[in-house]
Write a structure and sequence with these properties.
522 residues; alpha+beta; five-stranded antiparallel beta sheet; two-stranded antiparallel ribbon; elongated
Length: 522
Amino acid sequence: MEPVGVTAVAPSAEASQGPVWPQSKCPWGAPKTTTISCSLSDVMSEQLAKELQLEEENAAFPEEVPVVEGPFITGENSDTSSDLMLAQMLQMEFDREYDAQLRREEKKFNGDSKVSISFENYRKVHPFEDSESSEDEVDWQDTQHDPYRADKPTTTPKKGFIGKGKDITTKHDEVVCGRKNTARMENFAPGFQVGDGIGMDLKLSNHVFNALKQHAYSEERRSARLHEKKEHSTAEKAVDPKTRLLLYKMVNSGMLETITGCISTGKESVVFHANGGSLGDDAVPVPSECAIKVFKTTLNEFKNRDKYIKDDYRFKDRFSKLNPRKIIRMWAEKEMHNLTRMRKAGIPCPQVVTLKKHVLVMSFIGQDQVPAPKLKEVKLNSEDMKKAYYQVLHMMQQLYKECSLVHADLSEYNMLWHGGQVWLIDVSQSVEPTHPHGLEFLFRDCRNVSQFFQKNGISEALSDRELFSAVSGLNFTADNEADFLAEIEALEKINEDHVQNHGKKVSSFSNDDESPPIFCNK
């Protein structure tokens, strides 16, 4: 069926009474659509793809970041005759375009997130570099203001609040107080590291700030004490300036030739080796090798050792009148007197050369700067071990009866093996038998000696109670150790009460029966 064309005849003005609508403006007319024909090469072109991408980006982010562009560079307003100037201007334009692209990427990456990521470090042109500068401007380094340093919190006015109405902020506001506390941390001692709390906008509560303040003061006082302790006390294998001065005087006087080095360290002293010199023609000759015992001037090791001095009748009257540091000198003096008494009795021990405050110079037990080994370290055969046992037994009896002393710290660590015999050392804590705890110290020494030689296979070694009776001559009938110690304490109590009441001390103990000890006047 062929289409039939219908031609509309426009009515005349007379026949039509309504308004006449143009054909293109008629609301009931179909809109005319224009179709733009494009080829396949246009669709595949890169330019079209970039235009579509920019349209999508503009639709997604309608707010465009304004880009500050400089004036157009032409030959009229700038000198372009130099290639270097052209290259610099082109590089500046490139950097600005790069920064603009970086801002768009930053905006796209962050979006509406509360936590944003900044690409400021990757920018080519910074604001202070891009701004117009003049010769009249002052460099920020020449002023007190540092743009890279966070500003300190502003102070609250005298009226005590800032703002009006609902926005009022008092001086007791938590945020304001926290920032003020952070700024006040800069007033701490220089050695106390507080960090960059202002730059991080750190807010410290009053409780935390007060705790940090107290800790800073404590650390400052502690560092001062440590500094004073290092300056005025001896340390391990080292001496303080006063002790060093004493050693220098000994060398300068000719008593010592040289001080070679440290040979032993302990809780209470440091021992050095030295080559002896001479005191003069009429004086006692100084040994070729000497041992210098420097008592540590720190009081930590002497807090639990004052009982060896304050209850000793030789030093009891002087103890209460001295300050704690002079007690250490008395400790050195006590060892000198004990060694002298032992030397007169013929007991092998170091010979005292001189005493200067807390420095005691003695003869060296050893050879060629090598100290004699301790009885604990040396390996002896059965014959030498048996010989050492009987020698120790004889020395303990001599020490008690002839020297009227109790070693009070006798063990295999304080006995040296040199020249085929045992030598006793470290007698600074030795006391007399009349000491309130003298018999207890003696029983402890007997136990240490008995256990050591029994472990080394000496069958003839006596037990601790038998050795105590053999040394002291006191016979106790106790069957067990507890009763034995009770009898010792009872005897010491009788002695102590008698001394306190009558000012007398024990001269000898009865060894025939259980009668009380015999006392005599001083």
